[in-house]
Design brief:
The protein is α/β, with parallel strands linked by helices. It has 8 helices and 12 strands. The protein has helices at 12-23, 41-50, 69-90, 113-127, 154-158, 181-193, 211-217, 255-271, and strands spanning 3-7, 27-31, 54-57, 93-99, 132-137, 139-141, 164-166, 175-176, 178-180, 198-203, 209-210, 222-224.
């Protein structure tokens, strides 16, 4: 039986990965944020990696509005850097959950602390001698994202609302690449089992959609906020590049199929 070290196993994507991996017969060792509060966390991390065949490094601070760079860089960079160094010494493959935030406004320059923390860690891993694959997730949605609170998707935030408020009508040009969590799970498993040991890949549909279509897919009626100024750093458009997909992987869910499955899941949950 293969053993996988899964950081962030109690979070949104982590829970979905944990379920899929255990069902597939993997032994999963989970690590959460409180792991690093132990004064001997570095030794514990080394010993845990030593027991592992693969590392899926999902755990991170994912709040894109957080301005505390010290906290953000500790969890998203310092911890990741050490994990990569240990994995290199022990010969363990790392699959790193990176982010489309690294693309910034399309110029490859992150426009928030979160993006810089992810890009810095990704860059370190790609330049290291470790077996390191970075997966740049676009806008992930699906079961379990209530763990993200205010950072959950518009799909989840809008579900069950009678009149959900969207951005004002003069910014309908906003489009995002929404990727269903099942496809993210499959990308991780593909990267883990793949014989290639390094590289950086997009995990998105390459089919950007409006927030309107996402909300419609959840069966919700919407209206618009009064016109408000959108921050200059806001990402109006995100879209994965198909040429940067993992070989052998492609998404199964566009927004229509993804929201249909997601709504079915949430409807069933509400009736239980």
């Amino acid at each position: 039986m293969k053993t996988v070290l899964l950081t962030g196993h109690l979070g949104f994507i982590g829970k979905n990965l944990y379920t899929s991996l255990t069902r597939s017969g993997y032994n999963v060792l989970g690590i959460e944020k409180d792991f690093y509060s132990n004064k001997n966390w570095k030794a514990h991390l080394y010993n845990t990696i030593k027991q592992s065949d693969y590392i899926l490094h999902v755990g991170a601070i994912s709040d894109t509005t957080l301005q505390d760079s010290k906290e953000m860089f500790f969890y998203n960079y310092t911890v990741t850097k050490l994990l990569i160094e240990y994995a290199d010494v022990l010969g363990v493959k790392v699959i790193y959950s990176s982010s489309a935030a690294n693309y910034g406004l399309g110029d490859g320059v992150p426009n928030n602390v979160y993006g810089w923390s992810k890009l810095t860690a990704e860059d370190y891993g790609l330049k290291s001698d470790a077996q390191f694959i970075a997966l740049r997730y676009f806008n992930v949605y699906g079961p379990g994202e209530q763990e993200k609170g205010k950072m959950s998707s518009i799909a989840y935030q809008s579900y069950g609302k009678k009149d959900f408020k969207l951005f004002p009508t003069d910014v309908k040009s906003i489009r995002r690449d929404f990727i269903y969590v099942d496809d993210v799970v499959e990308a991780n498993i593909r990267a883990m089992d793949w014989d290639i040991t390094d590289g950086c890949y997009d995990v998105g549909t390459a089919e950007p959609e409006t927030f309107e279509n996402l909300v419609k897919g959840m069966g919700v009626k919407y209206s618009y906020h009064p016109a408000t100024k959108i921050p200059d750093w806001y990402q109006y458009f995100t879209c994965a590049d198909k040429s940067k997909w993992l070989p052998g992987w492609e998404p199964k869910y566009n927004v229509v199929r993804g929201t249909k499955k997601y709504k079915f899941y949430l409807d069933a949950k509400d009736t239980n």
